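Example S7 (structure tokens).
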């Protein structure tokens, strides 16, 4: 009986880890789409076509009042094709919160 309970706990823990990993991939993909849309709208070029997780923490959602995971991703972009600039996107749970960029040179 003990072995069966121990195996059940391990399987449950691995299942929870897989679920969290899958959710993180889903939110990351949503953030990447939002960054691509922002760069297209602002006539910027997203470099490396990727974003990287910078920070993750629990935060209370302002709309629902529930605790959600706040994820902050970092990305790099260019406006002229020569200089690299950094930006961040913030996600609250599965909702887009904000995009911030460094000041960048606007091409003439």
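Recovered sequence:
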């Amino acid at each position: 009986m003990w072995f069966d309970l121990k195996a059940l706990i391990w399987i449950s823990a691995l299942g929870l880890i897989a679920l969290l990993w899958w959710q993180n991939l889903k939110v990351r993909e949503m953030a990447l789409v939002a960054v691509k849309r922002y760069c297209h709208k602002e006539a910027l070029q997203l470099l490396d076509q990727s974003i990287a997780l910078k920070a993750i923490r629990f935060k209370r959602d302002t709309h629902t009042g529930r605790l959600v995971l706040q994820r902050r991703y970092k990305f790099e972009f260019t406006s002229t094709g020569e200089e690299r600039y950094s930006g961040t996107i913030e996600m609250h749970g599965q909702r887009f919160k904000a995009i911030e960029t460094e000041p960048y040179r606007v091409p003439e």
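Notes on this example. Helices lie at 2-41.
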